[in-house]
Amino acid sequence: MPESLPADDARTTELRHTLGDLVVAAHRLTRLAARVTGSTESPATWRTLSVLETNGPLRLGELASHSRVSQPTMTKLVRNLVEAEWVKRIADSDDARAWQIAITQKGADAFQSWRDELSTALVPMFADVSDDELDALRRSVEIVGSRVDLSTAASAALAGR
Which residue range(s) make up the domain with 64? Predict the structure, then answer.
């Protein structure tokens, strides 16, 4: 980091780099955990269930946007998830002609089982962390989670939900 940067710019640069590293590390950790578990489910399936669990029922287009897939891809995903009874279509209270997609209890249970399987698979890699490191990991999760929750709430408010 250049010494000529004012303190705020240096801090912003450090924050930007750290957040970038965090995102990359989180993606790597997720891919590693998925490989270790041998899960054959598409990551898009778990991402879709996660979005629905976090946000509640959404229209297909909103769900596709949140899950970062095209609407035709989401249509196929939802069809498969409906067949598995992990999601259901419900009437949209704002528009009787439209549908929303909601996670079912069976889907929430499957998602939780997958999360448990992922975390269990990672325990051996982290079994030797110190209490201080475990506290740091826990605190990092709290910090990131609270910021993401704030962002989700702000986005929902802007969308009028």
Answer: 42-128
Task: Report yes or no on 49 lying in a domain.
Answer: yes
Lookup result for tokens 């750290």: 18
Which of these, 117, 82, 122, 124, lies nearest to 99 by C-alpha position?
82
Residues 39-97 have pLDDT tens digits of 888 888 999 999 999 889 999 999 999 888 999 999 999 999 999 999 999 988 877 77
Q: What tens digit of pLDDT does each residue of 103-130 get?
A: 999 999 999 999 999 899 899 999 999 9
Q: What pLDDT was estimated at residue 154?
A: 60
Give, in order, the Cα–Cα distances in Å from 15 to each of 7, 81, 146: 12, 38, 17
Flag whether 8 is in a domain: no
Question: Between 105-126 and 43-55, two packed helices, what is the crossing angle to 10 degrees?
Answer: 110
Cβ-based neighbour number of residue 68 at 10 Å: 11
Q: How many domains does the chain have?
A: 1
- The one-letter code for the residue type at 125 is M
CATH no. for residue 46? 1.10.10.10
